[in-house]
Amino acid sequence: MTNEALIDSNVLVAALAVAHQHHGPSSALLANAQPNRFAVAAHSYAGAYTTLTRRGERAPFQFTADEAWEALESVRALTNLVGLTDHQTFGAIRTYARGGGIGARLYDHLIGEVAVAHAIQTIVTWNVAHMGSLFPDLVVTTPVDFS
User: 5-141 has which fold?
Assistant: First the structure.
């Protein structure tokens, strides 16, 4: 199975949440998806679920658990689920730490490591600067610029 691109969790959230500023281009990207065109890192589903269901005044979407699950299932039906083994995950965290990495950019690092592990040369994200700086040998692009 060869995937053209790995979809970042921020694109998943934007595609699923109509209120998101990038909803249009993100949902259009997935609406035209052919089988095996896109993959999603396993942990990106957890990240998207967390963002969609977050509560509080700084939580823009506030999906119910059922709404979020159904939305993620719809994406899963269009994409391939890919991930890292336990050894690869721990190795990626070690590499990130040894490189002085701190904080939540670890999740971007893990997404890039998933792409590398599965020979996926392109990551589609709304976080091009961070992802591109972590993985300069990969193509990092937005849904608007992905062709």
Answer: Rossmann fold (3.40.50)
